[in-house]
Design goal:
By secondary structure, the chain is an alpha/beta fold. 32% of the residues lie in helices and 20% in strands. The chain has 10 helices and 11 strands. Helix 6 links the parallel strand 8 (146-151) and strand 9 (167-170). Helix 7 runs parallel beside helix 8. The longest helix is centred in the last third of the chain and has 22 residues, at 263-284. The protein is globular and about 45 Å long. The N and C termini lie close together (8 Å).
Length: 286
């Protein structure tokens, strides 16, 4: 198994066996939650200079850093096309006019020429409902390069505007997982896998975002469906406390419903997260 890599931007990761740790704490304020495209370019250059070309799963820290998947997908070696499979409770395809943030990066990835399709699986967030429809980037959906897999969200608006092909809605998480596994049956397409643990129910892993209903067994079934085809992977959704110095980050994170984390419970939640990380590593690289 290739060595896992920890992008240590928030100090949230436990000690994984054989890990490579990249000390990046000086970047936390700059890139946490969101950043300008210029700052993302600077960070990407740092990754190119410090990340080993051959490595295992990359751990990004808090879900506030999920946009770091973008530069990781960009540096996937080779020339073949590949799909991107994202486990997430949110579409991460929302409008953000100030650069890129943890909820807008999917558009950047979906429109890459080498990316054949992006599947975002596990959405229970109202972000894809009618009330937030105008906030979604519609370009990847119209281009047929993005599919939302969701449960418990009314997405009938998509059919009325000709986007039904990009929305797969189910009554239960189990039905959603079964449908995705069937969809992947027999496929040989290379896959980049990105896991945000807020897709899981809170009893699997507590995160600092609103969470979905995916069971650990459901997540394992999705990973198993990609067996032998994963050419890159990352995991995010750790839980960590942070007070933004930048006013607009304080404002936007509050608008997104991020509450302060109870310090008395933080250690227990991080231990739960660490145990899941170990199991995820075993699944992804089995």
């Amino acid at each position: 198994m290739r060595q896992p890599v920890v992008l240590d931007v928030d100090g949230s990761l436990g000690p994984l066996a054989r890990r490579i740790v990249l000390p990046l704490r000086e970047w936390e304020e700059t890139i946490r939650f969101g950043c300008s495209l210029a700052n993302m370019q600077r960070f990407s250059k740092t990754l190119v200079e410090t990340l080993p070309r051959e490595h295992g799963t990359v751990f990004l820290g808090s879900g506030d850093f999920h946009h770091l998947t973008w530069p990781l997908v960009e540096r996937v070696p080779g020339s073949e096309r590949f799909q991107v499979v994202v486990l997430d409770n949110h579409p991460d395809n929302m409008r953000f006019p100030f650069g890129v943030h943890c909820g807008s990066w999917v558009r950047k990835v979906a429109m890459m020429p080498r990316v054949s399709h992006v599947h975002v699986i596990g959405i229970t967030s109202s972000d894809i409902g009618r009330g937030h429809s105008w906030e979604n980037y519609l370009g990847p959906l119209r281009a047929g390069k993005l599919t939302y897999w969701s449960t418990g969200v009314d997405v009938s608006w998509a059919r009325r505007v000709g986007l039904a092909q990009g929305f797969r809605s189910f009554e239960s998480s189990e039905a959603m997982v079964d449908a995705f596994v069937d969809d992947q049956q027999g496929s040989r397409e290379a896959t980049y896998l990105s896991i945000d643990k807020d897709a899981y129910a809170p009893d699997v892993a507590m995160t600092n975002w609103d969470q979905g209903t995916l069971s650990e067994a459901g997540g394992a079934a999705i990973i198993d469906a990609l067996r032998g085809r994963v050419i890159g992977s990352d995991v995010t959704g750790e839980i960590s406390r942070y007070q933004y110095k930048t006013w607009w980050k304080r404002r936007l994170s509050a608008m997104d419903g991020q509450e302060d984390i109870d310090p008395a419970r933080l250690a227990a939640w991080q231990a739960q997260q660490h145990a899941l990380n170990v199991r995820l590593l075993s699944l992804i690289h089995r």
